Structure formats: structure tokens, C-alpha cells
Amino acid sequence: MENGFSSPRNDTFNPAGLRVLVVDDDLAWLKILEKMLKKCSYEGLRTRKILNGGLELLNFSKHFASSLTAFVSVNPCNPIKQNQVASEIFELDIMLMNGPLMWYSTILISPRISLVLGGSDIEVTTCGLARDALSLLRERKDGYDIVISDVNMPDMDGFKLLEHVGLEMDLPVIMMSVDGETSRVMKGVQHGACDYLLKPIRMKELRNIWQHVFRKKIHEVRDIENIEGFESIHMTRSGSDQSVDGPLLTGEDLTSVRKRKDAENRHDDRDCGDASSTKKARVVWSIDLHQKFVKAVNQIGFDKVGPKKILDLMNVPWLTRENVASHLQKYRLYLTRLQKDELKTSVGGIKQKDSPSKDSAASFGIQNSITVHHHNDVSNGGYRFSRSNSVVQNVDAKSLEGDVKGIDTIPVTGHKRVLTVDIPNSHKARCSQIGFNGSFVPGHSDVNFTSFDSAIPTQPWSEVSETQFQHEHKPLRLENDFTQLPLPGPRHHIQVDCIQSGPSASSKPSVVDKDNLKPFDCTYKSNYPNAIPIGSAVDTFPVQTTSPIVNHQPFEPIARTTSSMKSQGLNLSCIPDLEAAQRNINWGVGSSLTSLDEDLQLCWLQGDCFAMNLGLQDINFSEYNDPALNSEVPFHLYDTMRFDYEHYYDPTECPIIDQGLFIA
Amino acid sequence: MNSNQLQHQVLYMRRSLFDQGYLDSEQLIQLEDLQDDANPNFVEEVVSLFYSDSARLIQNIEQTLSNRPVDFSRLDDILHQFKGSCSSIGAKKVKDACSQFREYCNAGNAEGCSRSFQLIKQEYETLRRRLESYFQMVKQAKAA
Description:
The complex is a heterodimer of chains A (664) and B (144). By secondary structure, chain A is α/β, with parallel strands linked by helices.
């Protein structure tokens, strides 16, 4: 497999690195953190050199694995286009205003999922007082990329500082404290922290901080796109009127964020309540339905199209003109955006363009299905996913509402992908930051969740959904965490094949169960023939049929995933550091972590980063979730789900893996 | 003592610090990992910072406790800081004593707080002594 590591730019690449500001009144910690960050930097440098050297990316060895962190990102890939797969790994640097901050490489694992591996150099500044920190920040407006601050400081409450930083400088802020009390953590989340670390802090948590900055940058890009693109669509709660993108949900998001306390349930209820009170029939725009729609549109001719005509052509008895009208509106926006992206496409890009309508169709379809499902409650037996970027993993109940991205799905056409999707809320950027980390993000960074887990067994899906619904309004059953990974530059995706070369050692991400790993043999049978599941060993995937995925706790996607991982010995997501994860991300997860078998599957949190520890290699994978992409995902999910569902009963197949991994 | 014996002594002291619950092994090891040529005395430096922070905090607690009425929320803040400080070197026993203090604090139990405070001071003193002799030994072993 071709390794496109040419990275000529590496020669000249000289990142200034991430400029981190650490604020803590505890001098011992200040010293420790400074040293740790510097160490991350050394390791990072070494890793980068290795990457640059063209080493097969997946051939991780313990040697440098520890310094390499990665996260999984969902590609806004149009499932129909799976065939297009890049064949090289390319390395990109994010060029930011003040110069490159970090480097990363993306490996396409499946049409939907990419692995983003990267790191950054780090430049540390320490500060013992909140007000000093603020003045430093104000002095050099663009002087820092991320702030790590203690929650307790003598002169100013850490949360206040957090707010200031968020408002004035809009930087990602990581909170830390010796105290992991849920209420505090939630408070952090509400104030916009993008992660919450518990002391004593471990190196691996710090290694992931670049992801927070990365994510933020991406969101910024997307926000810009958004603003330029769209008319804002008023978001209503009714299913088919989900608005597409745009900053809209800001208001809602804000509220959602605020509500995000342990009152998540209540929040959910409220949301759901609102949703259901609209009393509009929710139209589930399934793929099929959408295909019909698109066909009709194409037949009529896009210019002359009108809801009535489409309706007639589609010949779907139960569909109303209104349903079609709103769907059309979204579709139009979607296409507009697509076009814009085309214009923006720059260098190289891979030609992955299918006829836009096709793409849109598919993705759009997805979106819609998602959208529709979004609020949805029970009826579909479908899955819900939360689009919230919100918080880490858990929460998001609210996110659902707000984030539904209407037509965001932009089929992944190489380059385009990058820019299009967007997170409707600029505000979301903040929300999304809350994630955590999993590490998880938590620091979250260290929360490890594998999206893969989510995939898991389908059978329970329906059960789950139902049960879930019954339980509360947990809107997010399936939360899709994947977000599109924007790739500003030319993109080459490496086919999962390369992963295959894997078995050697370290490369397998999967890891938990080393023995059982069959890296990549698993036939990724489902929808993505090209994709090769990363190291999932089917065997190790004890499908949990019976465990209904009932989340008793509203927002615990993380927990779920974690648990599932545990129970399943998930491959990819092995989270050896469950403790760490737990430690770090306590977004109200608490005891939920103990409820293993349940969650699994559906934790797709959107907009959150989950770090997954890959076994021994200590490669942290976090899931980067961009709400915008959700639309894609759901579709995929939907498909896979159905697909897998059938397969589920067939023990000889290993569909699960697919799901696990990729469902993206 | 010769070099070998010194080494043994060091290991022994270290082991007992861990086994007896004075120090958290993970944290100490992590600190040792951070020590390198650029910072050859990193661990000791961090430990001294711990000493100075603790001394200050202990004084604060003392002061706050002696005021009437007792300001429990302030005490809670101080304890929170103290816990953070303990976590920097992994001072387990001291940290546990702090937690106990905090409980009394939350319950508004001044008497309980005073008692816990004595415990904290005690544990802290013990730890300090042990650490000082440990590092002494380490130095000697290195020099040998």
C-alpha cells in the first residue's frame, strides 16, 4: 500500500507548537505540568519525525506509540461512494494564523471513518494567578492556543476564568481539579470547558490536548462556512422541520448547555416534551424515501421543482405536501452548500465527486433520517443520535435539539468534506469542546470510547431503542460522534488495507484482546467492502444480544461505551485506562460505568472526542465528533444496522465489527 | 555502607513508603520519569514545593480554626487546596486525613475538624520525616 508520506513540507515544517497556558496556584502542580507538557513536546517531535520519515503509519511500535495520539473521525462519506478510497496517507499540518500548531495524518479506515493521528509540539507558559493569566491572554490576543486551569484559585474562581477566556478569547479551556464531583464537573461543562482533568494528572491526558485545539479550529472553519452559506433556518421541534445548519441553535444550545446539569433527565424530558407537543407527524426520511424524492426532483428538473409536483411523482400516500416542502428546502440548502464547497475545493483533492445529487441524496437522506429520528422518540425503533456536540459524551440531551443539522451532509468528496459540514452552532464549538474527554475527553481526552462499540450488535437495537425510550427521554441513544474531519488539503485516504499489514504488533488498534485480534481479517461485509475494520476480531466481539441498551442515565454515552468496551473486550476501544477515563471524565457518569452490558452500542456522541487507548501501545484514540457529520452517520448507521441486524443472527459473519468500527 | 547496601536501603525505604500507604507509587514513579538531565533534581524540587505549600496551608487552617465563628466554607477551600497539593506527590495518608477533615467540615462539626486537623499535622510530619530520610539515602547511594 502506498504510503504517501512524502510530506515534503516536513522539511520546512517547523511548528511553533501549541502554546499552552497553565494556570494553577499550586506551585508543585505548575511545575509538574510544565514538565509534563514539555515532555509531550519532545515525544511529539520524535513522533513527527517518524511520521515524516514515511514509516507506515499504522506500524506503531511501543517506541513511539506513547506519544502518538489519535482519534477517530467520521467522514462525511456518502455511503454510496464507498468505492472511492484514497490510497495514501497524507500528512497535513494545520496551518493556523500563527503558524502550524500541530501535525496529523489521516487514515481512512472505512468510507466513514478516519483515524486521525497526530500530535503537536508544545510551548508552555505557567501562571499562578487567574488575573495574571487573564492579563497574559489579553496582552497577546493570539498568543495562546489552549488554557489549562485549576478550578480553585485564590483570586478568582476557575470557572469565572473559564468564562472569561471563552468569551474574550474563545480558546479551548481544560479544567482540572483534585475533586471529581459530578456537580463540579457539570459546572465546568456548563461554563464551556472542553475537558475536565482530575489530579493527579497523567501524561496521556496531556498528550491529547492538541485534539481540543484541532477540534476547535475545525469548528471555526465550519462555522464560517455556515455563516456564509446559509439562510438560517428556524429550527422547530417538529421532525421534518429540523433545521439544517447554521448557527441557529445557538439559543437552544445555550439553554441546553445550561440545563446540562444532573438534570439531564429533566432536560431530556423537557426537550422531548416540547418535541412531542408539536404534534406533527414526524416523517422519517429513510433512504428509500429520499431516493424517491431525489428521483422525482431530477425528473422534474431541479429548477422547476415544487413540492406538489414532487409529491405527485413520488407517489407515497402518507406523505404530505408540507413534508415534502420542508424536505425540499433542506435539500436545496444542502446543494447550495455543496456547490460552495466545490468552489472552494483546492489543491488536489481527490475526485470523489459523484453526481452531487446522488450524494446529496444519500447524505441528505441520511440527514433527514437522522433528523427525523432526532427528536424522535420511540416510534422508529430507530436510533437516536444526538447531535450534540455537546458535551462529552454524555449529555447531550439537548444537543439533539439544537444540533440537528439539517442538511449538512455533504457527501464526502474529498476536499469538500472538509469544509462543509458544519456545526450549526458556533456556540457549539464550545459545546463540542465539552467533551471530553475521554479521556473523553477529556481530558476527556482520556476517555476512551470507541465508537466501535457502538456498533455492536444490532439485534438489541430495536430493543434498545424501545427500551430506551421507555426509560426516559434519552434522546441520545445513538449518538453519533463522528464528525467529519475536515481536511483542508489534499486528501488521500489510506485504505484500510494498510492497516492490515498490521498484525504486526502494535499497529492494531484494536487491542484489547490481543489474542483474539484478527486484525483486519474481518470482512467488513456490510456496506463498505472497501473498508477494513481495524483490528476487530470478530471473536472478541461478544455480541451482546440481550443487553438492552438502556441507559439509565441520561447522558452517559461515554459510560456506555466504556462499559461496553469492557464487557466486550472491544477491540478497538480497549480502554485499558478505564480508570483514567473514569477519573477524567466524570460527567455524571459515575455509577453508570458499572452498568456494563448496556450501553455499548449506542454511544455515539457527537462532537466529542473520545480517546481510546489502544492497548499496550498506549495510543489514545479519541473520537472526534462533528455534529455536522451526523447526518452521514446516521445513515450509515441505519444501513449498517439493518444490515447487521440480519447478519446478527449469522454467527459466521462478522458484521459487528463493522459496526463497531465504522459506523460512522 | 557500601554502594550496594545503600541501594538496598533506598529500595527498602521506598517500598515501605508505598506499602505503608504514605505515598502513592504511581505518582512518585511518574515524577521520577519526569526527572532527566535537564532537571536532575526534579523530584526533590517538587517535594520541597509540597512542603512549603503544606506549611502555608496548615497555617491557614490553624488560623481559620481559631476564629469564631468557624468559617467552614473557607476551611473547605483550604482543604481542597491541600488535597490538590497532596496529589502532586501522592501523599496518601495526608490526603485521607484531609478528606476526613472535609467531612467534618461539611457537617459543621468544629470539634471533629480540630481533631482531624491534628491528624493531618501528624501525618504530614511523619511523611516529611520519612521523605527527608529517604532522599538523604538516595543522595548517599548516588554519591557512592
